[in-house]
Amino acid sequence: MDPVNLAEVTGSVAAIGYGLAAIGPGVGIGIVVGKAIEGMARQPEMTGVLRTNMFLGIAFTEALALIGVGLGFVWQG
Amino acid sequence: MSGIVVLASEGDTWSPPSLGEFFPPAIFFEGTPFEMNRIHLIAMLMTGLLSLFFVMAFRNPQVVPRGVQNVGEVALDLVRTYIVDEILGVEGRKYTAYLTTLFFLILSFNVTGIIPFVNMPVSATIGFPVFLALTSYVAFNWAGIKAQGIGGYLSSNLFIPGVPKVMYILLTPIEFLSTFILRPITLALRLMVNMLAGHLMLVLFFSAAWYFIFFPNSPLQPILGIGVFGAGFAFTLFESLIIVIQAYIFTLLTAVYIAGATAEHH
Fold first, then answer.
1. Whose CA is closest to A14, among B4, B182, B16?
2. Cβ contacts (< 8 Å) between A62 and chain B: which residues?
3. Model confidence, pTM
4. For chain B, what are the domain ranges?
């Protein structure tokens, strides 16, 4: 008996994979920036500290998304 | 722009931008270890311009600044106020020179990505970010060893105080990995991949616009091409934001690492 394909993906699987991989960092950066703005609105005198730490948080969070961009080229197939 | 034009003018078939963008053909000394391509030339040019700017600004500094010195002082003050004072405090001002150099070198390496007819961010090729990350690695380790001695520095970084002794079996390898190995790697990769992705997006927009406008398959495609060109223009503006933010983040992280290395307790 021939194997039956129940689901098949054609085209660029890497693009789909990166789309999925970008969800996490996207949500993460949203939370980081949202919380920072919340903090700034509550305590405007802390804006400087919060902004600096916001950029730090963004830098760590977006690293995951950037690894995804890189790996797409490494395993181009 | 030349890379984009070559890519799109190959004829009726459009091919998406690839990593070949970042390996342009050699132009000088081909086949020798000193082989140079367009990117190396841009890097040298930008380094020269940056050095020229700061030499011009501070060659003969006056108490009341005039001309270029004004701009140079604003540049120094920017890094000192927003990075050095914020992270390292007043006693960390001896690192201002290094951090300023780092910030403006990365900024000038990034900004070539959106300068018309240059259109190649130097920091999108791995060599430059790796070297900059290595200087940062040396800087924060040197700062830590100088502040605490080599034993104190290693123990404060590897053995976090205030956790049960048993946990060191688990924590010390993780701390070692994250502090001494992953830090320089992520510094270099973050900068490089950000600029690479930005450049590829710009190439994608402008090559698609070129193809739609000059090799249309249907009468609607030139209109679409103009829209894509507009999107590319908008993305250039976004990219100019990324350029500054990446230079800022690299410098900020270096400052944070130096601050963490010099602080007595982790």
1. B16
2. 190, 194
3. 0.84
4. 2-9+24-262
